[in-house]
Write a structure and sequence with these properties.
This protein has helices at residues 7-16, 26-31, 49-56, 68-81, 115-123, 159-163; strands spanning 39-43, 60-65, 86-89, 101-107, 126-138, 156-157, 171-184, 190-202. By secondary structure, it is α/β, with parallel strands linked by helices. It has a single domain (7-17, 24-202), classed as Rossmann fold, CATH 3.40.50. The longest helix has 14 residues, at 68-81. The protein starts with 6 loop residues before the first helix and ends with a strand. The model has no long low-confidence stretch (mean pLDDT 91). It binds S-adenosylmethionine. S-adenosylmethionine is lined by residues 5, 10, 25, 44-46, 65-67, 70, 91-93, 107-109, 111.
């Protein structure tokens, strides 16, 4: 049975969570290694591990999410870590901020709108010369209809689908990769995540 990835779904998701990964996504760590810290937006920041890690590296970070429950956890984690992050409750599918960021990033955010439309929408918020980092669940060709363990089909993407969004006259593709990694949860289970990782840079002066 499939369902909408709406605010109710995500509030329930975060209310039900009793533990959170504390380590930042390794692709964020790799992809920002050579960047000079500036301003950053984490679109769909969840419990805040990536936003907090980036703030610890000297970036001025805004973490935005549709779920108040996720943001409450994130705020607790940033306070415990002693870093400043601006937490913002917003539905990013309709949000129209005036601000632009040197880095806009998103990890596994899947909203109610099609995945690629979401990436196109958040790309507008990259400052001239800035970067967009997308980490998404990889579309592996199999049909998945449930969120139990595997993401449903419409929440998955390929690196090729993502890079096709970016006109070569306006964006440079720095990374377009499909990767696997094993994560270990707080229980006995570990699982393999297959990801599409794309980083593009705005060519606007
Ligand atoms: C699978 S979680 C990933 C969280 C975090 N980025 C991570 O990697 O652990 C997806 C996140 O996207 C958020 N999200 C989904 N739809 C959204 C929307 N329309 N606007 C803002 N955030 C949204 C959810 O609340 C959730 O925190």
């Amino acid at each position: 049975m499939t369902h909408a990835f709406d605010k109710n779904y995500w509030e329930q998701h975060w209310d039900d969570r009793t533990s959170h990964f504390v380590a930042a996504n390794p692709y964020l760590v790799d992809e920002t290694a050579a960047m000079t810290p500036g301003t950053a937006l984490d679109a769909g920041c969840g419990a805040g591990a990536e936003a907090i890690w980036l703030a610890e590296q000297g970036w001025r970070v805004t973490g935005a999410d549709i779920s108040a429950a996720a943001l409450a956890t994130a705020a607790g984690q940033s306070e415990a870590a002693g870093v400043d992050v601006t937490w913002m409750e917003a539905d990013l599918t309709t949000w129209n901020p005036d601000e632009r960021w040197d880095l806009v990033m998103t990890h596994y955010a899947h909203p109610t709108i099609p995945q690629l439309d979401f990436y196109r929408h958040i790309a507008q918020w990259v400052a001239p010369g800035g970067s967009l980092l997308i980490v998404g669940h990889l579309h592996d060709g199999a049909q998945h209809h449930s969120h139990m363990g595997t993401p449903p089909d419409d929440a998955t993407v390929t690196a090729k689908d993502i890079t096709a969004l970016f006109d070569a006259t306006a964006w440079r593709v720095d990374t377009a990769a499909e990767r696997s990694r094993t994560v270990v949860g707080t229980g006995v289970h570990s699982k393999t995540l297959r990801d599409a990782v794309v980083r593009v840079t705005s060519l606007q002066p």
